[in-house]
Amino acid sequence: MKKSIFAFAIAGSMFLVSCGTEEENNNNEGIGQSEESQDETAEPTIIGTWQMTGFDDGYEPSAEEQEMRDKGLQELIKNTEYVFGEDGSLKVKTSMLGKIIEYEETYTIDGETLITTSKEGEAPPFNIIVSDSELVMVQKDREYTLKSTFKRQ
C-alpha cells in the first residue's frame, strides 16, 4: 500500500515540479505555429489541447497494490489535460487521490526537449515526440523514467 502511494507521489511530482527566470520563459523560439498559420509542409506543433491517454512509470506493483494502482492511473489519465499556448504558456489540469489540481507554467522547446518552468522551479526536461494527433513525453527523474502519452483535442 505504501509503495502504491509512493509511486503516485512520484507520478504526481512529474506534474508539480518546475522554475526559471523571466528571460528564460520568454525564449520560446521553435515552439511552433497555430494550426491556422501552418502550411502543409510545416512540422507538427505542440500548441493546443492534449488529453492524457496513457502513463507508465515502470513501477511493478504487488498483487495487493494492483487494484489501487489501477484506479489511481485511471483517475490520472481521465483527468489530465495540458494546454500549450502560442505564447509559451502551459495550463495543466490533473487529478490525484480524488482531488483536481490546476496550475500554470511556462515552457520552451529546444529540438526534441521540452522544459517546463513554474514559480517553484524548472522541472527535469522531457524528451518529446509530437505528431498531428499524438504527443509522447518522457522524463527521467532520479531513478524513474516517466512516459506520458496524449491525444490532441
Give me some keywords for this one.
single chain; 153 residues; alpha+beta; 3 helices; globular
Class computed from helices, strands and strand pairing: alpha+beta
Number of helices: 3
Rg of Cα set: 16 Å
Strand content: 35-45%
3D shape: globular
Largest sheet: 8 strands, antiparallel, barrel
What is the average of the pLDDT values? Answer: 82
- Roughly what percent helix? 10-25%
Based on DSSP secondary structure assignment, what is the total number of beta strands?
9
Which H/E pattern describes the elements? HHEHEEEEEEEE
- Spatial arrangement of strands, main beta sheet: 1-2-3-4-5-7-8-9
Q: What gap, in angstroms, lies between the N and C termini?
A: 35 Å
User: Stretches where pLDDT falls below 50 for ≥5 residues?
Assistant: 1-38
Brief overview, please?
This protein has 153 residues and is α+β, with helices and mostly antiparallel strands.
List the helices and strands and how they pair.
Layout: H1 2-16, H2 22-25, E1 48-56, H3 63-79, E2 81-84, E3 89-96, E4 99-110, E5 113-118, E6 121-122, E7 126-130, E8 134-141, E9 144-152
Antiparallel strand pairs: 1-2, 1-9, 2-3, 3-4, 4-5, 5-6, 5-7, 7-8, 8-9
Helix pairs in contact: 1-3
If you had to describe this structure to a student in words, what would you say it looks like?
- Helix 1 (2-16) packs parallel to helix 3 (63-79).
- The protein has 153 residues and is α+β, with helices and mostly antiparallel strands.
- The chain is built from 3 helices and 9 strands; from the N terminus they run H-H-E-H-E-E-E-E-E-E-E-E.
- The chain is globular.
- The chain has an 8-stranded antiparallel beta barrel with strand order 1-2-3-4-5-7-8-9.
- Mean pLDDT is 82; it is low at 1-38.
- 24% of the residues lie in helices and 41% in strands.
